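SAMPLE LOG
Freezer: B-3
Tube label: C17
Construct: single chain, 202 aa
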Amino acid sequence: MGKGLLFVVSGPSGAGKGTICKSLLDEIDIDLSVSMTTRNPRPGEIEGVNYYFVSQKEFDNIKKEDGLLEYAYVYGNYYGTPKKMVMDKLEQGRDVILEIDIQGALKIRDTYPKGIFVFILPPSMKELRKRITGRGSETEASINMRLGEALKEVSYIDKYDYCVINNEVAEAVERVACIMKAEHSRVSQDIYQIIERYKEEI
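STRUCTURE (predicted):
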């Protein structure tokens, strides 16, 4: 059994990457890596499901012990990916999906270039504003800041392997699922192990 595949899904805040990843978990046998953050939970968010919510001190200690695959400072808070869970699952042959911001995705690309990187785009900036406003947790100033950041983040799209426009959630989920299935048919080092097994069976 070969290693599992690491799928990194990111995009501007409000693009719908969280909704897409949640739907994928219902359709595909894949493990979700839950990120860690120093920000406070939003209404309805659950500890260990949406994020691991920790204090700044706890986050700093985990970072010092090299316990994070990546971390980033975004909108006044730290976010990071616990390393052990991801590496253990990949070694066990399990696929893992990471839903992280662009800063984190670029760091993962440097530290784990075997990952498959998928960029989620909103259909328009008008729709992105509508989605962020719909959260009910953002001020007008923070909404404008996020829209400005979104324009900057789109410039990194050439660092990704795939781009999916999230116009209709069901269609976007299907496209990402197709990417995942196709990646398992990609010719890689693992295929040579299969060929050697074929030779032994003759």
